[in-house]
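Reading a protein record of the kind used here takes only a little practice. Think of the row as the fold of the chain written in a discrete alphabet. A record is reproduced here so that you can trace the correspondence yourselves:
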Amino acid sequence: MTSPAQTIVIDNVRVFDGAAVVAGETVSVVITGNTIASVGDAGDAENVSRHIDGGGRWLIPGLIDGHAHLSIIAAPHDLQQLSWDEIGARMAVRSEETLMHGFTTVRDLGGPVFGLKRAIDAGVVVGPRIFPSGAFISQTSGHGDFRQPTDQHPFLDGASSNMQRLGYFRLVDGPAQVLAAVRENLRNGATQVKLMGSGGVGSDFDPIDSVQFRPEEIRAATGALADWGTYAGAHLHNDAAIRRALENGVLSIDHASEMTDATMRLLKEKGAYMNPQFGWNKLVMQAGFLSEFQLEKASIVIDNVDENVRLVKKHDVDITFNIDAFGPYSLWASVTAAEFTERQKYFSSEEILRQATSITAGLVEMSGKRNPYRGKLGVIREDALADLLIVDGNPLEDVSVLADPDNLRLIMKDGKIYKNTLD
């Protein structure tokens, strides 16, 4: 006979449910197994194994990062020199650090994390739920072409590079190669796939204004993904590339740093998500590993932020929470913290909390039948997955309290407690 699922009762908490405050007074939340059983009154909860007193603090949903890179644990040029066993060890550490910063779910938008995801799901490694994309899919000379200057081309010369061998990127040209790369990522377990649709900051060869992948190449990807019930996200900076992506079926516009009024309208008409980041805009010029060419590209991105936010507010677009943090720990942690503080220049704390919970949950759940996690994310409601944080301070008044992981007094993922400093 199967034993009944154990129940945890969290008492005396004020609840932000991902969209709004549940009640003005403190309430109780009942968790049975990995699911929220009730919000409000513990009532006649059975098989209670533990009571936790929240002390009147705020209980919020686990945070969701819509653009993570758990496998990019060093600068790209340093990854070229690392062995897989060292990268894997560092990924496990980065995974636990991510959860300890309150992120119970991430959409990993490029890199070899399929094994890490399986290890986390099996309980071997501590970390967030991962919605993996697999290798970046890039055209030759695109933003995902991270070959060293002397590396030969995988198809023209039959060569490869360390990062490509490890599964960080695939160089493809033409619809047939795009189809093969997308299908290979799906075979490996991708919940969505990422295309490199425009020039980017951290790459060596492509101008920021370059438009990447022809329309027929994009359609090859989005069509193959639709056949599997999921979608394409794309790295996109300039307006022409964003329009091309939207017109050809891309549903997640990541970075989106240079948009016109007409393109913002098109994004809303298509029902696509806009997934910009703000923390990097403060720290990118101090990253320390960018060339002069890359710094010039970064300045173009930064100069467009205010106009982009103006259009977001004009068209009432709900943006998601994108950190895009990678590299050594100090840089990763700084960018993660800055994402909360920099957003405060443009949005209220409550708006940012919605972005980091229920809104980004909608983005990751676009993976439909490819979603490996059954249950609602980003909310505190009956039957939702029990991903919960108890916070020192009031994040609805000052969301920057989430920038310091020491303010997280309880971290629960899937009904399991990973941190508790309340008792």
About this structure: The two ends are 33 Å apart (CA to CA). The chain has a mean pLDDT of 93.
